[in-house]
Write a sequence for this structure.
């Protein structure tokens, strides 16, 4: 598959979340952005299964953290 390079500007808070996400999942920024773009455009079949699984694992970690913080804040 051929590829094209693009440059984008994103808000600082999104970049910080991206950095945190790539640290958790051990994916590259490019892989995360390509995965997100493919999902947004409905082209999930183009994203390798390993990347999709890693993305789901990261989402589960994030959800676990949210649930845990929600439960502890309710006490």
């Amino acid at each position: 598959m051929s590829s094209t390079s693009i440059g984008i500007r994103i808000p600082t808070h999104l970049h910080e979340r991206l950095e945190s996400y790539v640290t958790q999942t051990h994916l590259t920024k490019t892989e995360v952005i390509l995965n997100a773009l493919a999902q947004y455009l409905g082209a999930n079949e183009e994203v390798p299964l390993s990347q999709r699984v890693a993305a789901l694992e990261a989402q589960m970690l994030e959800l676990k953290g949210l649930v845990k913080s929600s439960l502890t804040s309710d006490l």
